Amino acid sequence: MKTNSIKYGVVALAMSLGLSSCDNFLNRPTEDNYNADNYYSTDAACLSGVNYLYNSPWYDFQRGFIKVGEVFSGNMYWGNSPYLNFSVNGTDEDLVNMSYSLWAVIGHCSTVYESIEKAEGPSEAIKNQCMGEALTWKAMAYFYLVRTFGDVPIIHSNSATLAEGNYNELKKVQKADVYEYIILTLEKALELLPKHKDIEGRIDYFCAEGLLAKVYLTKAGVNGSLDNADLQKAADLAKDVIDNSGRVLMENYEDIFRGSNNVSDESLIAWRWTTEGNEWTRQNTQQSDLGIEGFCEVGSVWGGWGGPSVDLMEAFGVIEIEGYGLESRLKTFDSPETRADIDTRRKATMMLAGDYYPYFWRDKGGFNYLRFIYDKSYNKDATGQLQGPCGCNNVKHLYGNSADHQAEMGMSDARMASALATHILRLADVYLIHAEAMALMGKGGEASAVDAYNEVRQRAIPTAAPVSSVTFDMVWKERRLELAGEGDRWYDFVRRAYYDAPACIDELKHQHRNQMWNCDPLYKAYYESNTWNLVTVDGNVEYNYEVDVPNVTENSFTIPFPTEDVALNPNLLAEPEHVDIRATYKY
Q1: Which pLDDT band holds residue 407 (cuts at 50, 70, 90)?
Q2: SS3 579
Q3: How far apart are CA 296 and CA 133, in angstroms?
């Protein structure tokens, strides 16, 4: 943990005074020239003072969010990335930035919470709401930390830690206790947050309750075997959100990820970005890392050379590889006309030959994937070469071009900047949390579990027959397809590895994590002559089998601390200590 990461929280209050609202629905008060002593003097100032917690402190986590969540898990191919072959070490820049960002969030949330708590002037209702929002974000940051690094220190009060001056002496706390601290924090948030559906995208009671359900599901196996009491708690909390939040699943899966639906029933907790105000760190930069070169006019898009993995393509049923490791061979790769493309989530997650997107490039009549690559009359920057190393490219986290951004979000995009929300807890996730917890308790045949699973699956595959019972394996697969590309899959492996590491290792070692060869000539011939022939002019289309299985072990599910953090605080290498959370910490 970097010294600067903890100290960063000291400036949280000053930063909150200087930042404008993080989206149109979060308005700043008109008053000016506040100082730290009187800023939170009105309801409007309290709301404004929390806004930046929805974006700026999280900015440096964006790249780690994808590399850990998607590349580690085998959902995404990213060249020679150490996240692809499990060789990440403490000097990795994205790892360092991720750690810095998460500790910064905790520092900012603590400072904002303490400042609002002692503020005079605002109504109790607004003070409570804003403090609840800050605590939920703090809990979310700790949830990422403990699932990424395992045992971590606890900083309850940022101001107290800085006053004591012992930030380089903090000891790690056992991860089971860290989960208990997250639960304590969320329980306090639930006491404070309004129990109604917020229509502006702010965190309300049910948003925090959905997160608490996910925390209990994860904590259930942290000691090596599943705790039914924690599973029941996860199931009950998720069921309350499903039944009483007033939220319903969005009818069309693709619509969840459009800017016009930044705020929706589906989005419980999200990073809410903006391009207004020109303040760096308030914007979404993910299109740059994930989009194809030339995708938007403002440039700085270089993500086409990575993309969804062959293994994820297999999970969606559009390709089949037989064998693993050096025995891997391409078995089937169907044409756009013959592939069984019945899951609507596939097209919303990965672009394949034959795909057309009406919500991208709307000023050009929509986005045609192959025309974009091969037709200069359609795309003046067309390179004539497929970039996707596995024969596909990303869709999620993309907004399109400037016309799309303006139409969807009512504001302009900019270089490495969009206002597209990043959903980090969705309602469908909560449905599947309930189904998984019930299945793990042997209650997968109960109506609530079956209904939750069927609603998610049948939205994606309207022709799917309803199931009458749910198993863990069914939910495990469904979670991958539902949340692919959303930074979550690796944490599913971490949760399962707590109590069943061998199953996780086996699955990861039997993934197809490498690229496909000769997809470009295959696609070019299909575009020019509607010919789909896996024997191309440049050689056969085949899986790159010249790679060993990944070197994943039980230690792979905990990522090393940044080297600089360990140098500053050697206690990060020591054994963690047990802390009685309820006796030690109070809100």
Answers
A1: very high
A2: coil
A3: 34
Cβ(213)–Cβ(220) below 8 Å: no
Burial string for 446-481 (b: 16+ CB within 10 Å, else e) reads bebbbbbbbbbbebbeeeeeebeebbbebbbebbbb
Query: Using CA atoms, how far apart are residues 503 and 508, in angstroms rounded to an integer?
Result: 9
Name every residue whose Cβ is closer than 8 Å to that of residue 488 and which is 6 or more positions away in sequence.
Answer: 69, 429, 479
Q: What is the DSSP letter of 284?
A: B
Q: How far apart are the first and last CA of the chain?
A: 24
Residue with tokens 């989206």: 23
For residue 500, count CB atoms less than 10 angstroms from its CB and return exposed for 0-12, middle for 13-18, buried for 19 or more: middle
- For 291-305, the pLDDT digits (tens) are 999 999 887 899 999
Q: What is the pLDDT of residues 211-243, one digit of tens each?
A: 999 999 999 999 999 999 999 999 999 999 999
CB of 127 within 8 A of CB of 46?
Answer: yes
27 pLDDT tier (thresholds 50, 70, 90): very low
Confidence of residue 43 (pLDDT cuts 50, 70, 90): very high
CB 480 within 8 A of CB 489: yes
Q: How far apart are CA 280 and CA 122, in angstroms?
A: 30
Which three-class secondary structure state does DSSP give residue 262?
coil
Task: Say what the pTM is.
Answer: 0.95
Rounded CA-CA distance 497/220 in Å is 12
Residues sharing a CB contact under 8 Å with residue 520, sequence separation 6 or more, in sequence order: 385, 386, 538
The domains of the chain, with CATH numbers, are: 3-200+558-584 (1.25.40.390), 286-418+514-543 (no CATH)
Bin 71: left if φ > 0, else alpha if -120 < ψ < 50, else beta: alpha
Quick: pLDDT tens for 244-254.
999 999 999 99
CA–CA distance, 287 with 302 (Å, rounded to integer): 9
Neighbouring C-alpha atoms within 13 Å toward the C-beta of 21: 16
Helix (H) or strand (E) holding 322: strand 319-322
80/70 Cα distance (integer angstroms): 14
Give φ, ψ of 22 to 5 degrees.
Answer: -90, 0
Do residues 495 and 218 make contact, with C-beta atoms less than 8 angstroms apart?
Answer: yes
